[in-house]
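A.,

Following up on our hallway conversation. Structure tokens first:
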């Protein structure tokens, strides 16, 4: 993984961490869209990232939509004003939310007692291994998530502080929760400035209720 992040005394700054987390969101969302079959396979192309082959959308509308969102997400992360990002997979016909991929974001605040040395900065290798583990779980999600048999679309929800400057093209949204959902907690990763915890909720099979 090539991480171009600003360093302060060997540690990643908040701005540099924001870039890493935003990049993770971008590749993570693309990977979910591919693995869950939201769009046809021919609308994706493979790229190398984090030492893995990751499928990313080559659809112009999808990439433009994500680029606009991620520009604000990176800005808010650098300012410490974002606490959650959600990818909701919705039925095109009924608009019902079928899956809800949630990424909780926390600022890492290290408390160092008097006379103690601060923790050493996280190595690039360790960070890459943590991120790899999440992508492998996303790829393996087809083994436990219900098969999506209907045409779907997706929405990105960003939970930011009330004083965050929101683009005029953005609107408030319903949280798109799933009734009677099953939840699976995924792995997490952390930089020196942010911690990201992932989980997916999905609609329970009514025949099993």
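Then the amino acids I'd put at each of the 209 positions:
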């Amino acid at each position: 993984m090539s991480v171009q992040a600003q360093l302060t005394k060997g540690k990643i700054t908040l701005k540099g961490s924001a870039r890493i987390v935003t990049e993770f969101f971008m590749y993570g969302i693309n990977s979910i869209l591919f693995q869950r079959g939201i769009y046809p396979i021919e609308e994706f192309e493979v790229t190398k990232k984090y030492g893995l082959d990751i499928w990313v959308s080559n659809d112009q509308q999808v990439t433009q939509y994500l680029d606009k969102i991620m520009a604000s997400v990176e800005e808010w992360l650098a300012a410490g004003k974002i606490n959650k990002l959600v990818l909701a997979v919705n039925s095109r016909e009924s608009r019902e939310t079928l899956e809800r991929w949630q990424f909780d974001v926390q600022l890492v605040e290290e408390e160092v007692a008097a006379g103690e040395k601060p923790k050493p900065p996280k190595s690039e290798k360790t960070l890459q291994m943590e991120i790899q583990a999440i992508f492998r779980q996303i790829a393996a999600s087809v083994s436990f998530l219900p098969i999506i048999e209907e045409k779907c679309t997706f929405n990105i929800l960003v939970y930011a502080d009330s004083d965050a400057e929101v683009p005029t093209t953005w609107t408030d949204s319903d949280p798109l929760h799933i009734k009677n959902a099953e939840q699976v907690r995924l792995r997490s990763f952390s930089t020196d400035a942010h911690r990201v915890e992932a989980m997916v909720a999905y609609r329970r099979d009514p025949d099993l209720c």
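The CA atoms of residues 1 and 125 lie 8 Å apart. Curious whether your intuition agrees with the design.

B.
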